[in-house]
Write a structure and sequence with these properties.
152 residues, alpha+beta, 6-stranded antiparallel beta sheet, two-stranded antiparallel ribbon, 4 helices, 8 strands, 36% helix, globular
């Protein structure tokens, strides 16, 4: 009987693991110069994760241009994009600011609050990047790298 009692805690430990979560972050940067549309983009994406699942992403996007029209257009486009994403999937907090020579987007995406099922229904190519209704860290990193970002 004592041997059986000792096996129960061992069995529970094997099922649940050691209980230690691996938390971390990955910083991705993207800089591009769009000479055709007359703007420069400087972006930083910080992926915060636990184990292999994304918890949140903090993004800073700075678009610089000497054209007021382009800055106005990009300000509107960024506001519309993030509002639509927030309205449709949730989890977004954002602030768009415009100065004389740049537009800045400060964005936080909480993937623990996002409706990931709706996201992958609308974007089925993301299905392979999801586990337990959460985005996989390596999947999101791959998406940023495909955009041209360098991740560390």
């Amino acid at each position: 009987m004592k041997k059986r009692l000792l096996l129960i805690p061992l069995f529970m430990l094997l099922i649940t693991g050691c209980g230690e979560e691996k938390k971390g972050s990955i910083a991705c940067t993207l800089n591009s110069n769009d000479v055709v549309n007359n703007y420069k983009l400087e972006s930083t994406y910080t992926i915060n994760y636990t184990d292999d699942l994304v918890d949140s992403v903090s993004t800073v996007e700075i678009v610089k241009s000497d054209s007021k029209e382009i800055l106005d257009l990009l300000e509107t486009q960024l506001n519309n994009t993030y509002k639509a994403m927030s309205d449709n999937y949730g989890g977004y907090t954002y602030k768009i600011t415009k100065e004389s020579d740049k537009v800045k987007a400060d964005v936080s995406i909480d993937y623990t609050k996002m409706d990931v099922n709706k996201l992958i229904t609308d974007q089925p190519t993301l299905k392979g990047y999801v586990k337990n209704n959460r985005l996989l860290t390596k999947g999101l990193q791959s998406i940023y790298e495909q955009m041209g970002a360098e991740c560390k």
